[in-house]
Amino acid sequence: MANNPDFDLYQLSDEHSELRAAVRALAQAKIAPRAAEIDETGEFPWDVYEALAASGFHAISIPEEYEGSGGDNLAACIVVEEVAGVCGSSSLIPAVNKLGTTPLLVGGDEAIKSRYLPEVARGEAMFSYALSEPEAGSDAASMRSRAVRDGDGWILNGNKRWITNAGISKYYTVMASTDPDKGPKGISAFVVHADDPGFSLGAPERKLGIKGSPTRELYFDNVKLPADRMIGAEGTGWNTAMKALDVTRVGIGAQAVGLAQGALDAAVAYAKERSQFGKAIADFQGIQFMLADMAIEVEAARQLVYRAAAVSERGEASATYFGAAAKCFASDVAMRVTTDAVQVFGGYGYVKDYPVERFMRDAKITQIYEGTNQIQRMVVARNLLKGGAATGAGLA
Ligand code: CAA
After folding, report:
1. Mean pLDDT lowest among 4-8, 61-65, 179-183, 201-205
2. Distance (Å, rounded) from C-alpha 184 to C-alpha 81?
3. 181, 173, 160: which is closest to 232 by C-alpha?
4. Which residues of the chain does CATH 2.40.110.10 include?
5. Ligand 1 pocket, mutate which of 375, 380, 382 (most atoms under 8 A from CB)
6. How confident is the model at residue 395 (pLDDT cuts 50, 70, 90)?
7. What is the best residue among 187, 201, 242 to mutate for testing ligand 1's pocket, by most ligand atoms within 8 Å of CB?
8. Is 370 marked active-site?
9. How many CB atoms lie within 10 A of CB 280?
10. How far is the CA of 264 from the centre of ligand 1 (A)?
């Protein structure tokens, strides 16, 4: 699990394989039996959080010097993939902790890392990421949240939208403009605490899927932030936010692979047990071809996600390109595969007696959050046109 830049992309190391087996065992025992209920009630699964935290799977990427497990980005992807294979909502626990803390790892100094990361590693706090605003989604740099100087510190005003695990997290990485004349270079990143005076939350959004992970607005009304809440130097927040997404979009790809694999497994099992016209529907070539296409796509997505994880772990120049490509491809695969899984189940797929409609609803968001797939294609194309190291050209 430790950072191993030399691992073979086509075969997991023993450590990664053991990690997969351990997360799968936990997911089967403690999360799968709860998944339908989590979706039905829309309540955050604190029992799942505790089970993940007890094994260190809730935030596996926090380095050992901050009391974490020191897992690399592939380890983080494996955790998210295996949890998503049974419950999309629960997979947002490790995914969002990673999204919230990566800006500190990417752009923060020693003081801010040692102040916050151990608490997350110990399972005592969760961390969300706040970039989007009502009028600044894909065009994130047009944000209006504003922090103005107040002595040594800052006063923050504005709001953020679509914030995953809002209200559950104790800490929020918040991007705000400290110099609107400078555009992206005038954006800075801060840590906001849930109990900061002036901080409040909107009502939970009523969503299609990932219902056990609350999504809410954040409001900042003259929130006073001491100087030591800034992540990195003034004006580096945009770079930090983008570099963090380069790493964490791979995790959304992993979530998509997990959802697709979960749906595929259910469809294969159902095709063998469901009988029509006097034989199992798995005996019909029409079903076989569907299952074959689903399986091929899931494995292709997995390979791209793992390669992207390796590239980002090594800090290669193509991390932006691969992160966007993996997220885009895997989430499109997840949407197709989960939709086809519902089709294999026929009418039974459309009702809640089986998990495939939940996988399909949960898959949709993977094409949208951490940047829509239209934005991912834009990012891929821009890097492709730059060429060279930006696309990993020349590397096998
Ligand atoms: N790393 C470092 N710097 C980067 C970067 C990256 N990956 N991508 C862009 N930049 C830099 C550029 O180099 C440029 O800097 P210079 O001017 O010095 O060259 C600057 O940022 C502006 O870049 P662009 O000119 O490309 O800006 P743009 O506005 O045309 O496009 C974008 C930027 C890629 C579209 C960006 O706005 C983007 O990624 N949008 C999507 C936002 C997003 O992913 N939101 C999801 C939020 S997370 C979430 O979903 C919430 C949740 O809880 C799950």
Report:
1. 4-8
2. 33
3. 173
4. 127-235
5. 375
6. low
7. 242
8. yes
9. 15
10. 34
Q: Which two tokens stand for residue 281?
A: 């529907």
What CATH architecture does domain 127-235 belong to?
Beta Barrel (2.40)
pLDDT at 4: 54
**Three-state DSSP state, 146:** strand
Closest residue by Cα to atom 25, ligand 1, is 184
Q: Which residue has the tokens 């039905």?
A: 40
Terminal Cα-to-Cα distance of the chain (whole angstroms)? 23
Residues of the chain with CATH 1.10.540.10: 14-121
Ligand 1 centre and the CA of 242: distance in Å? 5
- 393 pLDDT band (50/70/90 cuts)? confident
- What is the CATH superfamily name and number for domain 238-395? Butyryl-CoA Dehydrogenase, subunit A, domain 3 (1.20.140.10)
User: Tokens 């494996």 map to which residue?
Assistant: 78
- Residue 47 tokens, joined: 């029992």
Beta-ladder partners of 158: 220
Nearest to 218 by CA among 304, 158, 278: 158
Q: Say which residues have a Cβ less than 8 Å from residue 41's Cβ, sequence separation at least 6.
A: 212
Determine which of 36-45, 69-78, 254-263, 380-389 has the lowest per-residue pLDDT on average: 380-389
Stretch 221-226: mean pLDDT: 98
Tell me the backbone φ, ψ of residue 255, rounded to 5 degrees. Answer: -60, -40
Contact yes or no for 96/163 (Cβ under 8 A): no
CA-CA distance, 359 to 223, in Å (whole number)?
A: 39
Could you please state the CATH topology (level 3) that the domain comprising 14-121 is classified under.
Answer: Butyryl-Coa Dehydrogenase, subunit A; domain 1 (1.10.540)
Find the helix or strand (DSSP H, E) in which 279 lies: strand 279-280
Q: In this structure, how many other beta carbons lie within 10 angstroms of the beta carbon of residue 145?
A: 21
Nearest to 60 by CA among 52, 48, 71: 71
Instruction: Please identify which of the residues 217, 297, 357, 370 carries the catalytic annotation.
Output: 370
370 lines ligand 1 (CB under 6 A): yes
Q: Which of 37, 78, 33 is nearest to 55 (CA)?
A: 78
State the sign of the Cα–Cα–Cα–Cα dihedral 273, 276, 282, 288: negative
The tokens of 331 are what?
């989430």
Question: Quick check: 218 and 160 in contact, CB under 8 A?
Answer: yes
